[in-house]
Amino acid sequence: MPQTLIKNATLLTMDAANGSKPFNGDILIEGGRIAAIGTNLAARPDAAIIDGRDRLVMPGLVNAHTHSSETFFRGRYEGMPLEIWLLYAYPLLMGPVIDERLLYLRSLLLAMESLRNGVTTMCDDFFDPPAHDLSRLSAVFSAYADAGIRANVSSAVMNVHTLDALPYARQVMPLHLQEKLDFGPPMPAAAYIDYCRSAFATLHRRAGRLSFMIAPSAPQRCTPDMLQACHALAVEMGVPLHTHILETKTQAVTGQAFFGKSLIAYMRDLGALSRNTTIAHAVWVSEDDIAMMGEAGCSVAHNAVSNQKLGAGIAPIRQLLDAGVAVGLGTDGVSSNDTARIFDVMRVAGLVHSVSGPDHDRWIRADEILAMATIGGARSAMLEDVIGSLEVGKAADLLILDLTTLSFTPLNDIAKHLVYAENGSSIETVMVAGEVVVRNGRLQTIDEAAILAEIRERVPAHLAAHAELEKLNAAFHSTMAEIHRRSTSKAIGMNRYAGNDG
Asked: For the Amidohydrolase-related domain, which residue ranges apply (predicted)?
């Protein structure tokens, strides 16, 4: 097996013993895994030696929640809450599905940006209407295999009509618009589970670093039997059930409107809230919700940037951590964020909680943010035994950063530099499973220039067609705005933590 020895580096291991406290040492990598951590380590004569002087070695970052289906919509939208934004980024009136080459390219583009900015693992909940197709899922897996990234991948499922998943929708949407929304028969739970089992049989564990996860879109968008079947299969296969819960003010009133209880309580009562459950957002959770989440041992993907861009609110991260909920950081899609940089999310997460409560002793600290970006994200992906910290036996998914850059000059506290000063520009080397995928800022696995040239050539026509869909879906804009207005009016009177994390 080939060996790599990183000598005399500053190590930030994020393990239980050292956490975010740096120390000097060596790392020996063999067979894609960390073989030893210590000082004056020896390697075989044919080992690759990396000089670690003035360099920081840390675990690769984990993007706990993203959507590759948005990758071509960077810089396209602003000033819209989720329910309105969805009309344009995920149109109700859909056109032809994106062709498989563009599907591959949009996934590859997300992986390229992620790796260059230190993300070695991402959880991609992409949307690919109207059906679930193994060939198209395989195209996404192929993109990530070619890029060299580690990923949990799924195509989100929903089988409840959109208007039956939104409070007030049937009341406020004109009948002639409702009649336009014919999505055909909903997917039965059994059919989706068959699809998932086929994905597990053919794609799961591809390249040793790509996994299939199960992704019911949200509890209000799926039937009870769909949620229960998804959860049972997730437990059986040891993978996350990755879903969206309580992101917006509209969703804050959805549970009571449809089920007479919060969406978290609804998940619990269905038996779908457990260690396997990873919840994107959790902005509008109550004290009781948080207690249920902690008892269940579930995880949250905290999307600090997208939650601000879409005006959703601020997740109560301190209370979630206190309850024992594992927290990772997610970018969300690049349409609701505009980058795939976890460094951006780290900085916003480090800042936004400081304005959401007066008790400064409970503000979120840099070492906690780093834990979310690494081992917390690994836990949310159910990969904490493989990645998230530098430990003997774990995969060699790591970053090497130059400590002589402006971001680290003068050098004070490394954790605070990483959260508040660094933006990824100090990254020199990125490894996934011991393989160098980025060296001196350049991807080693693909011809980046050729891929970007092909995207520039092919995507304008796709965006022009999408612009026509935007015009068609603008007919629903006022309805979604009214749903948001009514929900906001009701939500602000509810006893929720959102926007007050103190």
From this structure: 56-437
